[in-house]
Amino acid sequence: MTNAAIIQFNNVTKQYDNDPPVLDDVSFEIERGKFYTLLGPSGCGKTTILRLIAGFIEPTNGEIYFNEKKINAIPANKRQVNTVFQDYALFPHLNVFENVAFGLRIKKMKNAEIERKVKEALSFVNLKGYENREIREMSGGQRQRVAIARAIVNEPEVILLDEPLSALDLKLRTEMQYELRELQRRLGITFIFVTHDQEEALAMSDEIFVIDKGKIQQSGTPTDIYDEPINRFVADFIGESNIVDGKMLKDFRVEFVGREFECVDKGFNVNEAVEIIIRPEDLEITTLERGKLQVRVDSQLFRGVHYEISCYDKDGNEWLVHSTKKAAVGSKIGLYFDPEAIHVMRHGETEEEFDRRLETYADVDRHGE
Ligand SMILES: Nc1ncnc2c1ncn2[C@@H]1O[C@H](COP(=O)(O)OP(=O)(O)OP(=O)(O)O)[C@@H](O)[C@H]1O
């Protein structure tokens, strides 16, 4: 275990009865003081990971460590972890102050100490002066902050947040994303945040675990995962992608849509079948002659900062383009892209194999930086 790791999962499986495992041999480390996001579709196992960390359930197999101590069977109330739930789980009959004070009263802390800590927690979440308000008099965003104050007042080492923003409207949600991120930085506590919203994950996290079917598909920083998705699932789940089948001819040469292109990928077998991703923002609209692909514009939507343009090549592959330029629906255009814009994915590659392959690219200028 690295020095900074606060939580470690070693080959953790969680299975109910004879159903397929909801978590399947999962291993990872959580470092102290960072903002982590568990991202994946409904039912992939995100909440199960949180509940295992919180101590609400026990793993079927494997070990969970907290500060290097095995905690598989340690009860929830003995763990240095607090959870902020999706529905906030506030007490409707208690005012704001008493909601936040609740855990401290259970610990039989002195009144003066409680007063000081609750006020400090409320001012941390910008709710100074709201002590005597009833919960029903608070807006969704304010309730969210009360729930967070109630978690931080206990000074846990880790705060778990289970889709805490999903009940809020888009504008408030964006505001709370900034607030939560800022709060985590100020507190320096490890946050583990669950969402199925990829934009939220990209905006907030130091590290993202992309989960599907009870397995971590890929872990890394938002830019790592966006720039180098390991497989089709991750590429599709994070941002929008054009994905086509292709063939690696040799190092730095790839074939797709029946044509050969220069790329920056290497380390594949000769004629290995692969998948190719090109992000919509990496495709540039140009003349038919300059274009590396020739396509017909099928439809166009204005998205505020860019146009989302759907095009088809002669083989019927769709190419999605994000462009600040308009294109005439029905017209034939060229699409240009740099060799760095082509991402080659190997079928069935594990995260370890993938990382090892990318390490050998150190000498390749992947993003033109
Ligand atoms: N007590 C249980 N008994 C049987 N199956 C369960 C139990 N708890 C959860 N599951 C199953 O485990 C799987 C993963 O559930 P989990 O709540 O971790 O998903 P999730 O990724 O958090 O989904 P969502 O985004 O919908 O909350 C689901 O298929 C769920 O039905």
TrEMBL record:
EC numbers, comma separated: 7.6.2.11
Top-level taxon: Bacteria
Record-annotated ABC transporter domain positions: 7-238
UniProt GO molecular function: ABC-type putrescine transporter activity; ATP binding; ATP hydrolysis activity
GO cellular component terms listed in the entry, alphabetical order: ATP-binding cassette (ABC) transporter complex
Catalytic activity as recorded in UniProt: ATP + H2O + polyamine-[polyamine-binding protein]Side 1 = ADP + phosphate + polyamineSide 2 + [polyamine-binding protein]Side 1
UniProt entry keywords in alphabetical sequence: ATP-binding, Cell membrane, Membrane, Nucleotide-binding, Translocase, Transport
Family annotation (Pfam families): ABC_tran, TOBE_2
Family according to the record: Belongs to the ABC transporter superfamily. Spermidine/putrescine importer (TC 3.A.1.11.1) family.
PANTHER family named in the record: SPERMIDINE/PUTRESCINE IMPORT ATP-BINDING PROTEIN POTA, SPERMIDINE_PUTRESCINE IMPORT ATP-BINDING PROTEIN POTA
Assembly and interaction partners: The complex is composed of two ATP-binding proteins (PotA), two transmembrane proteins (PotB and PotC) and a solute-binding protein (PotD).
Task of the protein: Part of the ABC transporter complex PotABCD involved in spermidine/putrescine import. Responsible for energy coupling to the transport system.
Entry protein name: Spermidine/putrescine import ATP-binding protein PotA
Name of the gene encoding the protein in the UniProt record: potA
